[in-house]
Structures are given as structure tokens and as C-alpha cells.
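Notes from the 1:1 (GR / supervisor)

We went over the backlog. Supervisor wanted to see one worked example end to end before approving the batch request, so GR pasted a single chain during the call. The sequence is below; no edits were made to it. Supervisor asked that the structure be written out right there so they could see what the output format looks like.
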Amino acid sequence: MKAYKNVHVLDHPLICHKVAILRDKNTGTKQFRELIEEITTLLTFESFKEVPTKTVIVSTPLEDCEQKTVDGEVAIVPILRAGLGMVSGVHTLFPTAKVGHIGMYRDEQTLQPQEYYCKLPEGIENMQVILLDPMLATGGSACDAIDLLKKRGCKKIKLMNIIGAPEGAQKVAASHPDVDVYIATLDRCLNENGYILPGLGDAGDRLFGTK
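Structure output shown during the call:
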């Protein structure tokens, strides 16, 4: 895969360990859901290394001191339905973040994303937006969701995925060079049905126990 400055693949032993358990077909729904949340928290920590900050004065029990805090509000936007499983992982670090939702499904014939729902927080255009989807396959849903956010005036967008395919990462990176993409693991390729290999199956079904 061609290197893109806006694609960040996390190569951390702790994340690799959790992804290994996540992939296992014998991992149950409860553990799968917990691992998605834990990996998302680690992705969030990494993705905010260079977030804008501001200096405030804090009064400790002993004296006042200067301290840096994150500058601006954060909005979490999961792509339904699998993206819902990542929300709590971001809320662990940003408990006051507002949550919007973008509903898309993939047409099984064309593999193209179809939008069916969008509800975003008021003032999202002024927030740091974290777009969530466990799987980055063809990149179609991610690109369409980013397009939608930009039409709503969003200028600061980060995309987070647990598993990515090179095809999807390249599509998002080339289409939206201003959006930083954070992926826990970049897999080998897509199969003829548009599923990531080796992947982990259908993330939504495994999250919600629907198959």
C-alpha cells in the first residue's frame, strides 16, 4: 500500500494482543464488545496526541498553577450500526462528548453505501469530530460519511477503525487528505464479496449477537 501521511496504523503490542482475541471466532459477544471498547480507547488516546490545547489556571490544595487542557468540544459520530460499539471507548476519555449518528448500509449487489439516517449535534461544525466504524473495507461508507459531515460545515474530522483493508485506507486517504485516519490493524486485502481478509467477520453481528 502506498504511504499516506494522514493514515496512522497503530503497531502497539497491547493493541495487537487485543485484536488477536477479537478476531477469534470463539470470542463471545460480551468479550468482543469489551475488546472493541478497549481498543477504541487506545485509538482515541493516540489520535489526540496533537490536539489543540489551551492554558488554564488550576487551584491545587497548595497553590495556583498553569495547566493545559483540550481546546474545544468533541463530537462522536458512529456509522450505524457497528460504530455504536466504539462510542463507550471514546466516552472513557471524553465523557461529556456529544453523540451524533449516521445510518448507512452496504448494498450487497453493488457494494456501495446507502444512507438512511443522519442526526448530528447542534454546533458540530465547531467541534472536533470523531467518526467511528470498526471496519474500513472499500472505504465507500467512510468517504460518504465524511462528505456528509463536511457538507454540515465540519472542518476537524478524525476517522477511527479497528480493522482496515489497504483498498479502503487508500480511498479515504486520497479522497480526504485533510482527515487523519487511525487504524488498529491494516489487513491483507478484500475478498470478492468486499469483506476484509483475514478480518473478523461481521462486526455488527458479533457486537450485537445477531448471528
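Supervisor's comment: The chain has a mean pLDDT of 93.
Batch request approved.
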